[in-house]
Specification:
Protein name: TetR family transcriptional regulator
Pfam families: TetR_N (PF00440)
CATH superfamily of the largest domain: Tetracycline Repressor, domain 2
GO molecular function, one term: DNA-binding transcription factor activity
Keywords: DNA-binding, Transcription, Transcription regulation
CATH topology of the largest domain: Tetracycline Repressor, domain 2
Helix content: over 70%
CATH class of the largest domain: Mainly Alpha
Shape: elongated
Number of strands: 0
Number of domains: 2
Distance between the termini: 62 Å
């Protein structure tokens, strides 16, 4: 008799991992469309049964938090890909922040679900990788000449937070692009003393 687990055990674990990812991806899509979407609809989009969804995420908040963490992790690890794909560092910077804005709008639309202690801990934990990602974008813009050296990435995150105050839809996108140009005009000048590169 062997101590090795049955072959089916590994298969079941892989299937469970796939189901978890499918549920999170479905939640990402559906929460973006409608923050009030039901978990039954999420399960249907993920092609799993409601029981499978609840085994992975016993509460709605658990799923919302997992989707938020997944989105931020995906965004912060995508900086190199965005920089490689875009025609300029400035264009990559704009795309990256507009994507971050979309995620934050979803978060705001989910209301109280992201105000628990566990949620706040996860949001706080996302600050360091977000700042590191912005630092990489800033360094690329400095190397390109579209931004002066010495700007603090944390300051830039605070500055760019205007994006998630804009109205949704095409009008908000147009206004955002206009304000971004104003922001870059300012960032081409060196920051006052005290800035951190």
């Amino acid at each position: 008799m062997t101590d090795e687990p049955p072959a089916t055990y590994g298969t079941q674990r892989k299937a469970a991992a796939r189901n978890r990812v499918a549920i999170i991806e479905a939640a990402h899509e559906l929460f973006a469309e409608n923050p009030a979407v039901t978990l039954t609809e999420v399960a249907k989009r993920a092609a799993v049964g409601p029981g499978t969804l609840y085994r992975h995420f016993p509460t709605r908040e658990d799923l919302i938090l997992a989707a938020y963490e997944h989105d931020i992790e995906r965004l912060t690890t995508a900086v190199d890909e965005v920089l490689a794909r875009q025609t300029s560092a400035k264009a990559a910077f704009i795309e990256w922040f507009e994507t971050l804005c979309a995620y934050i709008r979803i978060k705001h639309g989910l209301g109280e679900a992201l105000h628990s202690a566990a949620a706040q801990e996860a949001i706080s934990a996302s600050w360091a990788p977000t700042t590191a990602a912005v630092r990489k974008l800033v360094e690329a813009c400095v190397a390109e000449g579209t931004m002066a050296p010495g700007h603090d990435p944390v300051d830039i995150i605070m500055l760019m937070s205007f994006l998630w105050r804009l109205p949704a839809g095409d009008a908000g996108v147009v206004q955002g692009r206009r304000i971004i140009e104003t922001v870059f005009s300012g960032l081409q000048a060196e920051p006052p003393s005290g800035g951190v590169s």
